Amino acid sequence: MKISIRIKFFIVLLAFSLGPILISRGIVGGAAEKVANRISSDTRTELLDIVSTELELNALSLLSLLEAKGESFALGTLMLAQQAEISLNKNTPASKGKPFFTGDYMGMGDKPSDMAPSEDYPLNTRSGRTRPMNISLEHSAFLVPAQQSTSLFLDEARQLMTLLPTLKDLRNTQQSSANWYNVALESGLLMTYPGHGRFPMNYDPREQDWYTRAMREPNNQVVWVSPRIDPSTRRAVTTASLAIRDKDGAPLGVVSIDIPISAIIGAGDLKARWSKSIQSFMLVRYPGDIVAHDGLLIVAQESYGEGGRRHWMSGIEPEWMESNDPIKFKKLLVKMKEEKSGHMRLPYKGEESLWAYASNDDFSFLLITPESVVAKLPNEMADAVKGLTARLRNISSIISGVMLIIVGLIAWFGSRATTKPVMAMAEQAKRLADGDFSVRINYTTGDERDELVNAFNDMVPKLRERMSMRRDLQLAQQVQELLLPSKHPTLSGYDLAGGISFCDQTGGDYYDFIKADNDSTPALGVVLGDVSGHGVASALLMATARGQLHSLAGSPLSPKQRIRAINNVISRDMDGTGRFLTLFYIRLLEDCSTLQWVRAGHDPAFRYNPATDTFSELNGEGLPIGVLEGFEYEDYETQLESGEVLLLATDGVWEARNADGEMFGKQRILAIIRENAHMYAEEIRLALMKAVEAFQANGQEDDIAVVVIKKD
User: Fold this and answer.
1) What is the DSSP annotation of 558-623?
2) Which of 204, 425, 604, 632, by CA, is between 20 and 30 Å from 110?
3) Among 86-100, 106-120, 275-289, whose mean pLDDT is lowest?
4) CA-to-CA separations, 88 to 95, 249, 254, 279, in angstroms, rounded
């Protein structure tokens, strides 16, 4: 049988091609498996580090939130104490309404009409279940000492009922719906809000730790009490309390706010994003040279109130944080001492876990989650890489078998030619991620990959420039914040407050309180300025003006002399730039109702007299600073009556716009001053800035600065 040359050539070609195919396939397969294993391992490690860092950032965020909540509750306690003292010192007429006692809530009398179960106040029953508790948000409840008639306490109850608007405002402002707000008097009467009737028999607030500790506090500061079981809900709470006193300093009682532990250190959002098994703790570090037990004392944890802790008198025993690996735990203690935040892998209750912490000078916030939860995504990605590689190998085998030598050669040499520049790009990208901005890719492929290479090379210097600019802006923002007053000044005879909100990282609005020489009488210069434009350039001009003002603080100059000296310097510096600074300068003297001011192109100050309910302005002539060198400014003088309010602001306040393009306007400012004139200067300032913030529809478009002066 004859065989054609075509068939013979095909058979010979097939025979010689099988060997190279098998060899090349084996080499490529082995190399691909090694690459897959390496990529899989590197991917898992990198993703695990990313997830761990994210958990650490979450711990930092929760620590900041915890600090902010603590300040908010302390401020709320102080505010409630101030209002209680005003009411109990008979500065507020007693309410004529009907007080509701705890017995009314329990069916022994007329109960409030709005009393209903509330999901915000869950009650832990002795059977271990949870049900909504009956409360009233429109009324408070009064508890009298055991075996005493409610009629003996009607006058005190009606006097305390005047605090109900304050209690409602506190609850709405603090955005924590599960708090109890209490006022306990020396007579044994207890007012609690929201109103309810669930108190244990013979419960006396005067015997509670939060009451006795507040009474013993020598400096009359807010006292924080360790976690305990709330007698009404059987939930774990902590309490902020403060003693209240009469005009002569004699004790009247104690105000307090009960806050659920879950509301302070709860990690509900993290549980939704990560896993319900994540746990949060508030800790205090005790070094071995202070106490025998060197470690972390648990101050609060989410698990309080679980298990057998049902009765309010059972208390909460302190616990120490522990790990199944003492060696790693000691390393964690060293790490927490040296670093404010971090993360580490070590076992917790027999399970390998990730610990992420964030610390301040007083305590630490710790998150613990099983490593199986954290590693879920990295493991899935690593398995996906391996699976993808396996599928690619199978496809490659099929194609190699079908296309034989041609496809095999193309796959082998083509893959090397294709992947070489890509691997080079990946290597340079790793260097770039490590902060090396000198990287460049010097490959030419002759196809679309050249565009990717060029884009990468163009991106590197731009990224470096943006990173440098971002660092510079952050530094400028920090410097500018340091230039502003860190706290409100104190000057006898006046109540002063100031604040600023920038629309960019840096801005041109400026306010300051500067001590000024005035013979033997303490004097204070109050300054409000607005640089044209905003951003870095405006911030620099603001800093220059501030430096000039502070440099003249020790000189015995009148207000107009100070402003004239500053104008001469800045006019020379700003000549030809078109930039200028409007300024309003007021000089106040201690225990003196006379004040002087200079107006350098800034809008007049608002003046309000509550006694006559009249508004006026502090006017005056004067060019903006930086416009004309040698300009002569004038001093203006007036006298303030007790209770009068002065408000200085920049145009970012009245030029703020809502969604319809309507400006906030000065009439709204006057209305806010009138409405809040009886309050402290800081409260007036906050009321105005909150109103402007709520009015703006598209975010802040200009810097906003406000200064309030109130005559005592």
Assistant:
1) -HHHHHHHHHHHHHHHHTTT---EEEEEEEEETT--EEEEEEEBPPPEEEEETTTTEEEEE----P
2) 204
3) 275-289
4) 12, 13, 12, 44
**Burial profile 436-466: b = 16 or more Cβ within 10 angstroms, e = fewer:** eeebebeeeeeeeeeebbeebeeebeeeeee
Element (H, E) at 228: strand 223-229
Q: Side chain identity at 521, as an amino acid letter?
A: T
The reported pLDDT for the residue numbered 36 is: 63
User: For position 192, what pLDDT does the model report?
Assistant: 95
Give, as one character, the DSSP assignment of residue 632.
P
Q: What whole-number distance in Å separates Cα of residue 407 and Cα of residue 39? A: 26
- pLDDT tens, residue by residue, 138-194: 999 999 998 899 889 998 999 999 999 999 998 888 765 568 999 999 999 999 999
How many CB atoms within 10 Å of residue 433? Answer: 10
What 3 state SS string does 251-307 have?
EEEEEEEEEEHHHHHCCHHHHHHCCCCCEEEEEEEECCCCCCCCEEEEEEECCCCCC
**CA of 540: how far to CAs of 480, 501, 564, 626, in Å?**
9, 17, 20, 14
> How far does Cα 145 stand from its chain's mean position?
42
How many angstroms separate the first and last alpha carbons of the chain? 124
How high is the pLDDT of residue 290? 47
What are the start-end ranges of the H helices in 344-493? 371-374, 376-433, 449-483
Alpha-carbon distances of 169 from 290, 539, 672, rounded to whole Å: 43, 37, 18
Average pLDDT estimate for 206-234: 90
What residues contact 207, with CB distance under 8 A and at least 6 apart? none
Rounded to an integer, what is the distance from CA 453 to the centroid of its chain? 42
Output b/e per residue, 6-20; b: 16+ Cβ within 10 A: eeeeeeeeeeeeeee
CATH of 93-265, one of 3.40.640.10, 3.30.450.20, 3.30.450.190, 3.30.160.250: 3.30.450.20
Domain range annotation of the chain: 5-54+376-475, 93-265, 268-374, 484-711
Within 8 A by CB and 6+ apart from 448, the residues are none
Instruction: Report the pLDDT value the prediction gives residue 5, as an integer from 0 to 100.
Output: 47
Yes or no: say if 244 and 81 are a contact pair by the CB < 8 Å rule. Answer: yes
| Residue 186 CB burial class (10 angstroms; 0-12, 13-18, ≥19) | middle
Say if residues 108 and 148 touch (Cβ distance below 8 Å).
no
Judged against a pLDDT cut of 80, whether residue 547 lies above it is answered with yes
The CA-atom distances, in angstroms, between 306 and each of 266, 367, 583 are 15, 19, 61
Cα angle 156, 162, 165; round to 5:
145
Q: What phi-psi label fits residue 620: left (phi over 0), alpha (psi between -120 and 50 degrees) or beta?
A: left
| Angstrom distance (rounded) from CA 497 to CA 688 | 12
Structure-block tokens of residue 628: 């004309």
- At 416, which amino acid appears? R
List all residues 6 or more positions away from 394 whose beta carbon is below 8 Å from its beta carbon.
Answer: none
Domain spanning 484-711: which CATH class is it, in words? Answer: alpha beta
Q: Give the other-Cβ count within 10 Å of 101's Cβ.
A: 21
